Amino acid sequence: MELTADQTSQLTEQQKQARTGRFGMWLFLAALSVLFIACVVGYLIIRLRVSHNVALGSLQLPSVLWISTLAIILSSLTIERACGMLQRDNIKSFKQQLVWTDMLAAMFVLTQVPGMAMLLKTHQRLLDSGVAMYGMVFMVILLHALHVLGGLIPLAVINKNTLSNRYNAQAHLPVRLLAMYWHFLGVVWVILFAMLYLLG
User: SS3 of 176, please?
Assistant: First the structure.
């Protein structure tokens, strides 16, 4: 079936918007990457300076952070599946995967809160004993948690728009951009968690 001139023009415009949106998101993620790399380098420098006083692996990460890690990895998978379902115009499966993403994102945040509280207690105890390096650990994890909270806002908007059936195989750019951001958060968290587990 041949497309009309109007349909062709609309399709071309959507493709331009998609390219512009993705490029903008890549720039945003590049800026965030610089911020996180700076935090990681700062932690590594401090860690190496006190390595003679504090053995590697001294920081005991709260067990709930393992649950957080699993939750954000799984949520990255479900939002990618949601994008795939949407691109195939399988709206029902898209909505199901989006619900799974919502629940896993909520699990991540809800397990981060007690995890952060436990880390804060650990930091205070070590600070009292003269080991101040774990303040950097707390700040890095807090920074990541704030970016996750920032991701929950567009996720909520997408949920609202989904109820109005705004997305389909042709109109799915906001969902794809959120997925890119969510994948980035997942990768950053896994790197941070592995670094703290191995070097803490």
Answer: helix
Look at the alpha carbons of 69, 70, 75, 76 in this order and tell me if their dihedral is positive or negative.
positive
Instruction: For residues 83 and 178, give the distance between their C-alpha atoms in angstroms, rounded to a whole number.
Output: 10
Q: What letters, b where the CB count within 10 A reaches 16 and e where it falls short, cover 163-189?
A: eeeebeeeebbebbbbbbbbbbbbbbb
Closest CA to 61 of 106, 110, 114, 127: 114
- Cα separation, 82 vs 94, in Å, equals 5
Residue-level pLDDT, tens digit, the chain, 200 residues: 454 555 455 556 667 777 888 899 999 999 989 988 888 888 888 777 766 666 666 667 888 989 999 999 999 999 999 999 999 999 999 999 999 999 999 999 899 888 878 877 776 666 655 555 666 677 777 777 788 888 889 999 999 999 888 988 888 889 999 999 999 999 998 988 888 887 76
Fold of 14-199: Four Helix Bundle (Hemerythrin (Met), subunit A) (1.20.120)
Of 38, 18, 56, 65, nearest in space to 139 by CA: 38
Write the CB contacts of 137 (distance below 8 Å, at least 6 apart in sequence). 43, 59, 119, 123, 196, 200
